[in-house]
Amino acid sequence: MTAPPAASRADAVPFPTRPDVWELPWEPRRQRSGVLNLKSCELRHPVAAELVSAAAHRLGTADLMYYPYQQKLVAALSDYQGHEPSGILLTAGSDSAVGLVVDALATGGRSLILHEPTFESWRYYAALRAVPVVSCPALEAGASRLELTGLHRTMADHPPAVVVLTNPASPSGLALSPEAIAETAERARRAGHLLVIDECYGAFTGITHVPLVASSPHLLVLRSYSKTFGLAGARIASVAGSPALVSYLSRFRPDSTVSSTALALLHTLLADADRFAEVWREVRAIRAEFVQEVLTAHPGWRALDPGGNFVTFRTGDRALPLRMAHHLDSHQVRIRALDEVPGLAGCLRVSLADAPTMRKVAALMNDPVAPR
Description:
Blueprint: H1 6-11, H2 19-22, E1 36-37, H3 46-57, H4 62-65, H5 71-81, E2 88-91, H6 94-106, E3 112-116, H7 120-128, E4 133-137, H8 149-157, E5 162-166, H9 178-191, E6 194-198, H10 210-213, E7 219-224, H11 225-228, E8 237-240, H12 243-250, H13 260-270, H14 273-297, E9 302-304, E10 310-314, H15 320-329, E11 333-334, E12 336-337, E13 347-351, H16 355-366
Parallel strand pairs: 1-11, 3-4, 3-5, 5-6, 6-7
Antiparallel strand pairs: 2-8, 7-8, 9-10, 10-13, 12-13
Helix pairs in contact: 3-13, 5-13, 6-7, 8-9, 14-16
């Protein structure tokens, strides 16, 4: 069914609304029964499923009936991340963290400087709050490394703003070196910017920027536990920053949106952090095997490394990703064609599951009838 025009929907609301909000794209997530979702980069691994199931069975009545208290989990995260408790803030997933940063730090005449492509939620929340966005391309067409020259030039010339980059980058999977991140953080400090680094996929590549926060009061690090600890359904993430900056962000009350259930699940799973680290290492091994199988059949393709719990392939053919997505969809497998993403024309992304499943997906992609 086609949605009615924005104007007619606005007219149906008996109270003034913002016309610009009606123009923003939105539709609910739709679950397709029997379809393997390798589009959303959820953690799909049998050991992770076993650990999450065990944690769920340990939930008590209090975790469902009573209001949440975060101190116990924040203390555990402090030990796990090596960052002081007063510098950790919990949010209901990373999208909520993005909205919080935009609300608290980018409104009031400021702007966002985005190293793109990045997560779409940054532009969405900026549009929702009427925050200007300055785009700095991170990828040239056909490139296999991230570019920082344009970002650094913009940072030098632009008034103080919120600067956002992801590392490893999404959806490319490419990563910046620690030296490049440290240089960017120093440039942000000198220019008066706030630098936000989203390390959603960092655990799969051994990347974290949290230790840099102690010496960088102008830095925020976003971490999602949806991917790393298999809690996409629980919606929980954290923001690490200086105690002063976290205290300011806390006034926007993100704590009121994080459930007791999510807190209890993550607290339990942190005790199994070593086993999750083994899962992340195995995901890297699954990724390597999957890449090898696909590239053997498609020697003209390239995998963008190091990735995360996904692989982004450059196919060299702008039309091929959508055709491959349709081919896999006909076999009840969803992936993402990236042709609409700047710098990633001709690319497709496949998130990872367990090794036997990925062998089956590789066989489907390598089938003689598959697009080439």
